Amino acid sequence: MLAKTLIPTSPEKLSRSAAVKKGARQNNPKQNNYHSTPESFLEVRVHHMNTVPSLSGLCVGYERGVWRVEQFATHVMEWLPEFALKTSECQAMGFGNAVQLIRRAAKNVYDTAKFQNRGEFGELFLHIAIRQIFGSIPAISKIYYKTANNETVKGFDAVHVVGPPNDLELWLGEAKFYDNFDRAARDVVAELVKHTDTDYLRNEFSLIINKIDEALPHAKILRKLLSPNTSLDEVFKRACIPLMLTYDSQCLATHITCDDAYMTAFTSEINTNYQKFVKKSFPKKVRIHLFLLPLHTKHRLIEALDKQLKIWQQL
User: Hey, where are the domains in the chain?
Assistant: First the structure.
C-alpha cells in the first residue's frame, strides 16, 4: 500500500478516473477499428488511480536470473511503426509495403552514433505505457514530423486521446529517459511549468491541429477541443499529463527474480520516489499520471535499443 501521506483525490477527480478506465475499455483497438497493438510486456506492479497524481510502477522483470533488457528492447521495437508513422500509414501497411514502412519508422527515430543522451526511447516508453494501460489512441506522431533525421523535436512528448467520443480526454505527455530519479523529477517539473503556460499551450495546440491525420478516429472532435475558440478551462477538464520517468534502480540491481522479496522492495522503491515527486512544486491545475520505470541500467538498455534500431534501419 502507498504511504498514508498521499493526497486523496476529489470526487470530481474520481469521476474522471472512472471515465478513463471506461475509456480504456472502449478505446481497445480491436473494438474501435484502430490497428492492433503488440502483446503486453511490461508488468504493472503498482497502480493507484485514486491518488493525486495517480501512479503506475512498471516492471521489465527477469529471465533465468537476468534483467530482461534484450527482451524489452525487442518488444519496444514492435511498437516502432505506430510510434514513428502517421495513422494513415499504419492503417495502409500490408504485405507489399511493410518492410519499407518499418525501415522508414526506424530511420525517423534517429540515425546517429551519438545515441547515449537521446530521449526518443523515453517518448516511446511513454507511448507504450499509455496505450497498454489506458487503451489510448495516438493523435499525432511527433517523430514523423521531424525535418531532419537527428533533429530534437520540441513540444509535448506524446499526444494521445483516451475514452469514447462523448467523453474524450486529451493526454499530453512528457518523458525523461534518465539514470537518476531526482534529476528526472526535477527536469520534468520544470517542463510542466513551461508547458502549461497559456501562450505555450495555444502555440502547441495550433501545431497539433495542423498535424492531425484525417484517418485518426475522433479527429473532428479533437480539432474542436484544441480550437482557439475553446476555453483552456474546458480543455483542462478533459486533459491529463502523463509523465514517464526512468532511473537506475537499486532494487533491480540487488535481485535476480520477481519473488516476494523483490515485490516488496520494488513497491517500496516506487512509493519512496512517488513521495519525492509529490513534494515538488508542480502545476496543480491539471491532472497528472506518473509512470515510473526502474531500470538495470539505462546504459545497458539504450545500448540494446540502439543495436535493435540499427538492425531495423537496414531492413
Answer: 11-69+119-299
Query: Dihedral through CA 153, CA 157, CA 163, CA 167, nearest 10?
Result: -80
pTM summary value: 0.87
Residues 6+ apart with CB under 8 A from 268: 251
Asked if 51 and 8 count as a contact pair (C-beta separation under 8 A), the reply is yes
Please choose, from the candidates 241, 81, 254, 91, the residue with its C-alpha nearest in 3D space to the C-alpha of residue 160.
241
CA distance 241 to 287: 6
The answer, yes or no, to whether residue 23 has pLDDT greater than 80, is no
Residue 147 pLDDT exceeds 70: no
Q: Report the alpha-carbon distance of residue 234 to residue 216 in Å, rounded.
A: 22
> What integer pLDDT is reported at residue 24 of this predicted model?
44
Average pLDDT, the chain: 86
Name residue 235's amino acid: V
Q: Are strands 287-295 and 239-248 parallel, antiparallel or unpaired?
A: parallel
> At 160, which helix (H) or strand (E)?
strand 158-162
**What strands, in cross-sheet order, belong to the sheet with 239-248?**
43-48, 54-59, 287-295, 239-248, 169-176, 158-162, 137-138
**Ranges 15-19, 194-198, 218-222, 303-307: which has the least confidence:** 15-19
**Residue 18 is placed in which grid cell?**
472512472
Q: In the chain, which residue ranges form alpha helices assigned H by DSSP?
A: 11-26, 69-78, 80-84, 87-92, 98-109, 120-134, 181-195, 198-211, 219-226, 232-237, 250-253, 260-278, 298-313
C-alpha grid cell, residue 262: 523483490
Taking the C-alpha atoms of residue 293 and residue 297, their distance in angstroms, rounded to an integer, is 11
